[in-house]
Write a structure and sequence with these properties.
Structural class: alpha+beta
Organism: Streptomyces melanogenes
Helix content: 40-55%
Pfam family, one: Beta-lactamase2
Number of helices: 10
GO molecular function: hydrolase activity
Protein name: Class A beta-lactamase-related serine hydrolase
Order of helices and strands: HEEEHEEHHHHHEHHEEEH
Strand order of the largest sheet: 2-1-9-8-7
Keywords: Hydrolase
Length: about 290
């Protein structure tokens, strides 16, 4: 059985529709399973925000040590970072970027988007040749569409498959989108210092390595000498992650996995775990090629 067939079988067994692309950053060898199909990025798009932020800094249009005030008013809802804090906060732009990437803090992401603008994010992805990657909404706007589309039933309505079917946030034609191949291309550019200067590329890689969630891609590589750096993304029924797996022999592999579950359950361990399972199948195939 080919690696692509094994990947599709793993998605089926986990009860998800999955799309994957994996790329050997140095040789260019690749494996795909729906790698060119449009997908909803959710918080994976924060990687694009991060790269755009560092482009702005490299061009001298902002200082990453600039201090910003984050009042209580207007914060995005969320269980992590500033979004979950109870008091006013003052921090640097680069510390906001850390919170955006490490714990997927929506308030920090909005703060940074307020500083650089959505147009800068789209200009960055266009410059890097990511023709299928585009941000339609800020994260505040994205969450607002879910609230509006869910209707008076609120968050509880998101357990209803009929409500899920009408969410604009789950339709790549109407929300922030990309393809798995575009995302591995972006990761490769970051790791090869082609997205930004070497100094800023190193800063981006550092933040991706500080993500706290080990239950998706990293679960497929439970080895002390293998490093996984990535960014997750989640919305109702959607579980995604893009990242780079680095081996002690110097091998480095960009992998992007996007899934949508048939179940509307908020907690679905097999759907999380299959991201690591399929990433490992793909990387092992690339290493054996």
């Amino acid at each position: 059985m080919t690696a692509a067939a094994r990947i599709r079988e793993a998605f089926d067994e986990a009860g998800v529709t999955g799309r994957l692309h994996a790329l050997d950053i140095d040789s260019g060898a690749e494996i795909g399973a729906g790698g060119d199909q449009a997908v909803v990025t959710a918080s994976v798009h924060k990687l694009c925000v991060l790269v755009a932020l560092h482009e702005e800094a490299a061009a001298g249009r902002l200082d990453l040590t600039e201090q910003v005030e984050v009042p209580l008013e207007g914060r995005e809802l969320g269980p992590t970072g500033v979004a979950a804090m109870l008091d006013p906060v003052r921090m640097s732009l680069r510390d906001a970027a850390y919170l955006m990437m490490a714990v997927s803090d929506n308030t920090a992401a909005e703060l940074l988007l307020g500083r650089i603008g959505l147009d800068a994010v789209n200009a960055t992805t266009a410059r890097l040749g990511l023709a299928h990657t585009y941000a339609v909404h800020t994260f505040r706007e994205l969450l607002a569409t879910i609230k509006e589309d869910a209707g008076p039933g609120g968050a509880q309505a998101l357990a209803d498959p009929y409500v899920i079917a009408r969410l604009r946030a789950l339709d790549p034609a109407r929300t922030n989108r990309s393809t798995p191949r575009d995302m591995t291309r972006l990761l490769s550019a970051v790791w090869r210092d082609e997205a930004c200067t070497a100094e800023h590329g190193a800063a981006i890689r550092r933040l991706l390595g500080l993500q706290v969630w080990p239950h998706r891609m990293a679960s497929g590589f439970p080895f002390d000498d293998v490093h996984v750096a990535g960014k997750t993304g989640s919305l109702p029924t959607l579980r995604n992650e893009v990242g780079v797996i680095e081996y002690p022999d110097g091998g480095r592999y960009a992998v992007a996995v996007f899934t949508r579950a048939a179940s509307t359950a908020a907690t679905l361990p097999p759907a999380d775990a299959v991201i690591g399972t399929t990433a490992r199948i793909a990387v092992e195939a690339l290493r054996g090629a």
